[in-house]
Amino acid sequence: MSFLQVQDLAKRFGGTTVFERVSLTMEKGEFVCIIGHSGCGKTTILNILAGLDRASEGAVLMDNREVAGPSLERGVVFQGHALMPWLSAMSNIAFAVKSRWPDWNRIQVQTHCQKFLDMVGLTGAEHKKPAQLSGGMKQRVGIARAFAIQPKMLLLDEPFGALDALTRGTIQDELLRICEATRQTVFMITHDVDEAMLLADRILLMSNGPAACIAEVVVNPLAKPRDRHSIHHDPQYYGTRNHIVDFLVNRSKRYQSGELRAARSASAKIVNLR
Amino acid sequence: MNGRAQSLVAALLSLVFLGIFLGIWHLATVPKTQAQAPVDEYSKLLGKGAGAKKSQGFPTLSQIGEAALAQLRDPLYDRGANDKGIGIQLGWSLARVAAGYALAILFAVPLGFLIGMSPILHRALNPFIQLLKPISPLAWMPIALYTIKDSSISGVFVIFICSVWPMLINTAFGVASVRRDWLNVARTLEVTPWRKACEVILPAAAPTILTGMRISIGIAWLVIVAAEMLVGGTGIGYFVWNEWNNLNLTNVIFAILVIGVVGMILDFLIGRLQAAVTYVE
User: Pairing between strand A214-219 and A269-272?
Assistant: First the structure.
């Protein structure tokens, strides 16, 4: 049995279907990215995995147990960092740590928080309020908060969308390093093809909404460990990138219009470009 | 001009305005020395004789100063029901405001929390709030006096009823508009409802709640003066009314000044509290 099983998920509002027939499995330690145009229901899928939203049909099983509501087993990094502005960086993480381990004393909580602040490179900014931090630093606190509760699975909702390219690169490197060190299972939404190719083991491509589905699953052919500075020298790089971009530009629409309905009726096509 | 120079100029300008105001007052009330009316038997009988103290109508600045000094030198004297020092009167008013205001907080903040959390409760109670809110707190006075039968506690009730609406409405609004993201964070962390209320919703809504409390303290201080004028007995409002009956405008003006200063201090204190809980997003 796979660690995470998503079976035939669908979300409908009245007569409209946001997405349907979304099925996927993830193994422990796997990093999966999902790419698709706006409105295809990526965030809804992530919220259902988190337990914050309910699917109209289908089920999610993690560790052979059904996901029925939010849980400390699944850490979420929200799109808009979602830090509490009245708490310092340290206290924001401590809020999560105290929820995870309610009987810990102050010293234990503090040491644990410090470890994760150091991990995301925020040593020295412990007592700053979110308003005093830059966008990148805020998102780092959000990542540290999610990692600090040591969840079985991490859900990232387009965490770097609002950051400038330079900051994004640095944090991507950090995330890559942390994930390699902790063998964290990660499900992440992104719009950035390069980001997906750098981070993910598999990339799920969603067709356009309404009635979106996972059209293709691209197994990342680039060998690990991947490095942002040399990744584009990999002979597989441009082939893979073109395949994904082609999908986003052309094929994602054709799935919607029904031209590729035959492909849609079966489970998502697995693309192995190796 | 930098900030410091600007505030210096502003302070100077304030002093100039104060000077102009006091100057006009002084010129308007300066005793007319040439007005030496002929002293005859009739005017002596009317108290307008040369020996009698001249009442020029509106008090002069020096008279106000003297009255203020006399009151401030001994603010806590108590010579019977109709002659108490300004300190004692102020103490009564502040005590009534504190009691009514504290009761209003105890009632409005928890209820506002419930209303803010439950849209159904909000809809159910909204007509009552909208109906009761515009009623002048003094209109409640007869009912309060009839049911409570104690003028002092009736004053407390009036303060309660006038403070409660801004607090209730602001608390409900603040709680209802806590950002969904923060609540989702609490949900994914499986935070207990009590901890969520105290550590997420309360700090998130605190600036809005304090805004309501600041409006309330202003209204409460406005209303206490009127309420005490109405029920009498003690308090700064009664002091004003009593001095008016004594035709002692000097003390009335002094009391008005005190009311203004105390109101300013109350607002300042709540303002400090508000600044302490306000966060930058």
Answer: parallel
Chain B residue closest in CA terms to A100: B189
The CATH number of residue B257's host domain is: 1.10.3720.10
Residue B200's Cβ-side half-sphere holds a number of Cα atoms within 13 Å equal to 28
Give residue B72's pLDDT band: very low, low, confident or very high (50, 70, 90): confident
- Contact between A76 and A146 under an 8 Å Cβ cutoff? The reply is yes
Specify if B272 maps to a domain: yes
The verdict on residue B198 lying in a domain is: yes
pLDDT at residue B82, rounded to an integer: 78
CATH 3.40.50.300 fits A4-67+185-272, yes or no: yes
Q: Which of A75, A85, A95 sits opposite B280 (nearest CB)?
A: A85
- pLDDT for B130-169, tens place per residue? 999 999 999 999 999 999 988 889 999 999 999 999 999 9
Indicate the angle between helix axes B249-277 and B86-117, nearest 10 degrees: 40
Cis amide bond preceding B75, omega within 30: no
- CA–CA distance, A70 with A149 (Å, rounded to integer): 14
Nearest to A49 by CA among A163, A187, A185, A177: A187
Structure tokens at A190: 């992104």
Other Cβ atoms within 10 Å of B233 Cβ, number? 12
| B116 domain residue, yes or no | yes
Q: What radius of gyration, in Å, describes the C-alpha atoms of chain A?
A: 19
For Cα atoms A87, B203, A86, give the angle at the middle one, nearest 5 degrees. 20
Find, among A139, A226, A220, the residue nearest to A176 by Cα: A226
Cβ A215 vs Cβ A205: under 8 Å: yes
Whether residue B214 is contained in a domain is answered as yes
Query: Running DSSP on this structure, what letter comes out for residue B117?
Result: H
Task: Show the domain range for B219.
Answer: 86-277
Decide if B184 and A78 are in contact by the 8 Å CB cutoff. yes
Best mutation target, B178, B182, B189, B199, to test chain A (most A CBs within 10 A): B189
Distances (CA, A) of B117 to B104, B112, B123, B197: 19, 8, 12, 10
Contacts with A100 from chain B: Cβ below 8 Å: 189
| Structural domain boundaries in chain A | 4-67+185-272
- Residue to mutate among B179, B185, B194, B201, with most A CBs inside 10 A, is B185
The answer to whether B269 and B210 have CB atoms below 8 angstroms apart is no
β-partners of residue A22 are A9
Distance to chain A for B229, nearest Cα, Å: 44
Beta strand extents in chain A (DSSP E only): 4-13, 16-26, 31-35, 57-62, 65-66, 74-77, 153-157, 185-190, 202-206, 214-219, 269-272
Question: How does residue B52 score in pLDDT terms, banded at 50, 70 and 90?
Answer: very low
Q: How many CB atoms lie within 10 A of CB B128?
A: 9
Q: What angle do CA B202, B206, B208 make, to 5 degrees?
A: 130
